[in-house]
Model the fold of this input.
Amino acid sequence: MEKKKMRILIANETYPPNLNGAATFTQRLAQNLSKKGHIVAVIAPGLKFGDHLEIDNCGVAIHRVRSLPVKMVHPNFRVIVKPDIYTAVRKIVKDFKPDVIHIQNHFTLGRACIKAAEKTHTPIIGTNHFMPDNLVQFAPSFAEGTMIRVMWGDFLRVYNKLDYVTAPSKIAIKMIKDIGYDKKAEVVSNGMEFDKFKKRPVSDALLKKYKIFKNIPTFISVGRIEKDKNLDVILEALAIYLKKHKAQLILVGNGKFEKEFKKLAVLLKVEDRVFFTGKISDRELREIYSLADVYIGAGTAELQGLSVMEGMASGLPVLAVNAVALPELVKNGVNGYLFELSAEDLAGKMDKILKDEKRLEKMAQESLKIISEHDIVKTIAKFERIYEKVIEEKKKSSSKSKK
Done:
């Protein structure tokens, strides 16, 4: 029997074209649910100072609400500047009539959605993408500890109001359990669209555009150019590695600290072997993945590691820092190596992973094997099951309360 199609409302404080892992996940979730026949709407910050509605090429209705960029704090973040945000969200909920609401954080939109859900008796779930380390890097170091405690406390107050919570890794669930969350929670991978990351030819135009060499060992790292990605460690490791070997490093993405890392590359005298591409198109990104030999993930605030997953889906062995969720993706000595957060250790692993071509190829195959468990099809099926479950539970609780 065909499953009932649901009306699903998703809210997130970040959404493409403003990119980070949570934004990418939210878009993939919305579009893949829509492709399965569900009616999907998204609430997200506007791209200009004003509310507007857009429909994407998958039929997802995106309600953009008034916001402003805060580049001095974060290059890809916009802040909702709508005093009547609850009224606006309440109207969207009233007009759309969702069967379930799915929030991605506990900030302005998440709070407004919870209030609207309570008012309309709509089941609401949340996914945890939050890790204070991603934000405190922009604050004075003396205030970091206090800010982290306050942020987690605020998170807990909001997420304790939800009907169900998911997170993309075991460690992400453990984190919220450790701070006192004791309600229903489940690991659901962010998911991966494998067809988009199959190996493909690399055009001469791309090599010329970014001045990349074609036939030397290539390391790649993709993501925000910010401190929590520890690009200084990668650059210092490359400088050590280049003393004995040829190689190049491609850094894809943009961020507040790009100038600082470019200066560091010059200081280390590796600027002719490091290529900062900035923000690039999906097509170019897939070509660069196909060009690379090894992915490096040095981020110490990864609740799953979407770019690491993309590298694995592209058939790349991985060097990953031994921190947070990355050891759940990278099995030491199987599909790559884990390294401690030091340039010396990473340089040693860079040398080790490229020494044996047969082992490198075997690791590439293991990456594909491990990442196959994170197929977006499985992720969507899990969320459909969770949505159906909370919808049914809300109906039962409503029926009891009426008696």
The radius of gyration is 22 Å. The first helix runs from residue 21 to 35. Residues 197 and 310 are 7 Å apart (CA to CA). The chain has two domains: 7-191+375-402, 194-373.
